[in-house]
Amino acid sequence: MKMTLFAASVCALVAGMASAQTDITVGLQLEPPNLDPTGGASQAIDSVLYSNVFEGLTRFQGDGSVVPGLAESWDISEDGTVYTFHLHDGVVFHDGTSMDAEDVKFSLDRARAEDSTNAQKGLFAGITDVTVVDPLTVKVTLDGPNGSFLFNMAWGDAVIVAPESIETIASNPVGTGAFVFTDWVQGDRLELTRNDSYWGTKAALEKATFRFISDPTAAFAAVMAEDVDVFSGFPAPENLPQFEADPRFQVLVGNTEGETILSTNNKMPPFDNVLVREAVAHAIDRQSVIDGAMYGLGTPIGTHFAPHNPDYVDLLANSQYDPEKSKALLAQAGLADGFTTTLKLPPPSYARRGGEIIASQLRAVGIDAQITNLEWAQWIEEVFKAKDFGLSIVSHTEPMDIGVYANPDYYFQYDNPEFQALMEELNTTTEPAARSALFAKAQTILSEDYVNGYLFELAIATIAKAGVQGLWANQPTAAIDLTAVSWAE
Amino acid sequence: MHPKPAGLGTRLPKILSNAPKGHLYAVYTRNSPMIRYTCGRLSSLIISLIVASLVIFLVIEVIPGDPASFMLGINARADTLAALRTEMGLDQPMYIRYFHWVAGMLQWEFGTSWTYKTPVSELINDRIWVSLPLAIYALILSTLIAFPSGIYAASRRGRAGDVTVIGATQLGVALPNFWFAMILVLIFAIKLRWFSAGGFAGWDNPLLAIKSLTLPAIALALPQAAILARVMRSSLLDMLGEDFIRTARAKGLTRRQALWRHAVRNALIPVLTIIGLQFSFLLAGGIIIEQVFFLPGLGRLIFQSISARDLIVVESVVMLLVFTVIVVNFAVDLAYAAVDPRLRSRT
């Protein structure tokens, strides 16, 4: 292994002299805890491995659209419950075993099994049966039509893995992608090399190194010293103007699927009163939160939906910044003197910085939000599970996650039968125009019920050296897809 | 743990200088008090380790936050969480988990990290080759800086040179090491481009490895050197007031000759005590420096494991560090006893 790596780097060096650079070093903040995208919620696993090492039946593109992946095509039965996937021929895993229908069956059955530790097990909930028709055809039966099934299969949690390599997947991931995993020095870096027997278009890069730099100051230094060629999800937005002014670098600002919301405990008085929730919505000046906490990066939202999605409805007018109206609503709710509540903040800077600003805006209308800073593990325990909170600030980064509002046990405890019925209907609707109408209705209900304070859509900044091309600016899913990345000559 | 009597370090030189020449030999011929003393120390070492293991285990177990929920995130279903908890052994009662942990450690088996899914011993093994060389490197640097400046200051007591050293060390003690670290990065990595801003090159190429540890070692060493230089200076000044120095001066040595021939060697003992303490600090305490230079060391491992609630890693690494400190203290206690008979008779 060491020898081949050495040989590869010598080749890279020689090649580098002749033509454009063929290796890249990518910095990112979070290190994957392990390398099994089907066994953990950490986004960092997908950031490094999605599309590069692992592929699913379908896949996300940089613009968020879903295209065929390992399945080159599919047929959907008349009633929308049976999907027959036709797999690409000649796909092999990095260990040389072939990828066929048995592997697809294995992967889907493993994800939905009783002892599955898949963090998004819900994606597979509707599957009742997976049948191998022939080595290149697999039939998936659902318990009812599901309009987002192909979308679900594009997630990092639904990638195709092989039974031969599953035991060691957490430390030695074996996929079908355009890059082969070669080395991981825990706490420092992870290395991929080009898969020269890749079934699709081969990658332009021969080698990719991911480095994990959690401290924002260190991230800044690493980019400035050109230790890294790309920093994905640059953590210090205040430094962006400096990079923009420097001809050595390019700054890509893209959108994510992260709806950043002032989560509100709908069962805890006084937030069980819609007037109070509306008062909170009018007390918040979204743009000043974006400017103050994110240095201007982010798009204001008025409901729980990504603004770049074609089905997005602009409902900002419902939550217009209007402190006087806010005070009037509080008075109407019998809280003219205001009230005291908790604001529990997880570690990301959008929450910590945003929390300070929102607390001061709430104080202006008489709401005393007392800030507690929590670590993620504590946040999950106290806020998410025990629901012991009044307000919190979280970015919900899963794509198309409006469905969580149909779960009355979800931590903000919104219980609206009308909305739940709407989601049922959406799940069984596959016709695009009808789905759009249902999405619009769902967004409107959430906005008018002021379930949470809708703040902004999280943006992501990537800093790259000027010659790097083909990077995703947007993050439709957590991924640093390097398959189309190259250096300009 | 046995806190050493506070005055021990500074008292030792006098004892040493007054001790008859044949004294060290006597320790080994009349060895029964030494054995009794060693057994006493050994049993308290074992008790310390047991107490430490209990405290570490309990403190870490009561930190709020469920490791399984952290790993699976907020969309995890209850059955998935239960499956993972069983896999991690979290469904067993606490005392059983404690005994498993202790029994494992006695066989040098630290278990498997929950998040990394690799054996903890492997994780420690990888990280120690960053933290240990870094600590040694920083210690060498700080000694190289501290000794000359401490001796220089003491030899020029009250004069401009002394005042300069005192001023510089005061600054060195007051300024935090991460600030030094950032300044070093700004100058040597971003402006001059002599070093990379961080990261560890690996020991495949020892020169590159040492190069990547240089800035962090300097940042760690400067504040330590400041402390050490002050101790060196004051310990030397203490020595210079001693009878044996006066005798040396009376025999015709100049102040400087007496300092170099007699005072420096004796003044080293409290300094070595401080170096011993600093080493334990440098080994585990470089967390912030490891963050600033994104080095994959033990400190960063502990930090990452705490926020990921990878309890098994935190418990084992902390226990290992405590073990190191307790054993080093034990060795120091024995060494002191070897040279000071009064310590032996006290137990």
From TrEMBL, chain A:
GO terms for molecular function: peptide transmembrane transporter activity. Residues 1-20 form the signal peptide. It comes from the Bacteria. Keywords: Signal. Pfam families: SBP_bac_5. Its main location: periplasm. GO terms for cellular component: ATP-binding cassette (ABC) transporter complex; outer membrane-bounded periplasmic space. GO terms for biological process: peptide transport. Belongs to the bacterial solute-binding protein 5 family. PANTHER family: D,D-DIPEPTIDE-BINDING PERIPLASMIC PROTEIN DDPA-RELATED, PERIPLASMIC BINDING COMPONENT OF ABC TRANSPORTER. This is Heme-binding protein A. The gene is hbpA_1.
TrEMBL record, chain B:
GO terms for molecular function: dipeptide transmembrane transporter activity. Pfam families: BPD_transp_1 (PF00528), BPD_transp_1_N (PF19300). It is found in: Cell membrane. The lineage of its organism: Bacteria, Pseudomonadati, Pseudomonadota, Alphaproteobacteria, Rhodobacterales. It comes from the Bacteria. It is a multi-pass membrane protein. One of its GO terms (cellular component) is plasma membrane. Its main location: membrane. This is Glutathione transport system permease protein GsiC. The keyword Transmembrane helix applies. It comes from Pacificibacter marinus.
